[in-house]
Amino acid sequence: MTIARTIAAARKIVVKIGSATLAKPDGSINVPFMEEFAAQCANMIAAGKQIALVSSGAQVAGISTIDRWARRTDMNYRQALCAIGQVELMNKWSGAFIRKGLHTGQLLFTKEDFNDSLRALCMRNTLFTLVDEGVVPVINENDSVACDEIRIGDNDNLSALTAVLWNADVLILFSDIDGIYTDNPKTSQNAKLIETVDDISALRERITIGSANGFGTGGVSTKIEAAEKVCAYGIPMILANGGCAESLGALAESRMRGTLFLATNGRRHESA
Ligand code: GLU
Questions:
Q1: Contact 163, 124 (CB under 8 A)
Q2: Ligand 1 centre distance from Cα of residue 262 (Å)
Q3: Torsion-angle region of residue 135: left (phi > 0), alpha (psi -120 to 50) or beta?
Q4: DSSP string across 80-141
Q5: Can you name the CATH fold of 3-261?
Q6: Which of 140, 144, 145 to probe ligand 1 with, by most ligand atoms within 8 A of CB?
Q7: 45-48: which pairs have CB atoms within 8 A and are 24 or more residues apart?
Q8: Per-residue pLDDT tens over the stretch 108-149
Q9: When you count CB atoms within 10 A of the terminal residue's CB, does the N or C end of the chain come out lower?
Q10: Domain boundaries defined on the chain
């Protein structure tokens, strides 16, 4: 199975965009990227796909809005920043999608919401309704209410939980890395991109053995956790670089490489 074929076979796609992909080097939100990304989503939706977007960036957008708070580490300020940034983020996503003729709906979740069957049912129903009506759900953690006890903590795991909740056909994580490498690509010339992973436990061991500096990117472990969650449920996951021009279309047309985590459980839940 290739990445392009996995996307071609999928109808329901969860796409996660990380903060590093959404922010420019100066910390401001990359609006041209969002406009282009919305255009790619619109093309896919016009071709019959359904997309749920998990977007990070509330904190980054908050800081770029009120930069004098950038160094505040107190929890109330971090949460207040997310409250400010989430509005900015949604304004920009909403504008980008509306210019492509698509409405967006905001969904903010916490771990507790997924763990509560009634809340999870409501979340699922809302997701299905939005998508079935042609609206693009834009999902983030509810950072302003989530303290440690009820936090998921990262949007890799949040997008995996969302993919399972929605019975998605594939989860695509767009990050600032091209995928999983055999070694740290920043320091090792011999590092090779692992294009397919069919045994996540074996990959984990390889990473641990690989050394403490791993792949030099802090977020690899949550990406592997996300892959474990969805693959066990029968949903493949793609990890790729979201910073490349037209990344979604490029992946779908085999113009860009990434790492494909194959579903370990053959059982697929029926798409509703
Ligand atoms: N929910 C966080 C935010 O919007 C991002 C979490 C993550 O990057 O994984 O700022």
A1: no
A2: 26
A3: beta
A4: HHHHHHHHHHHHHHHHHHHTTT--EEEEEE-HHHHHSHHHHHHHHHHHHHHHHTT-EEEEEE
A5: Carbamate kinase (3.40.1160)
A6: 140
A7: 45/102, 45/134, 45/136, 48/11
A8: 999 999 999 999 999 999 999 999 999 999 999 999 998 877
A9: C
A10: 3-261
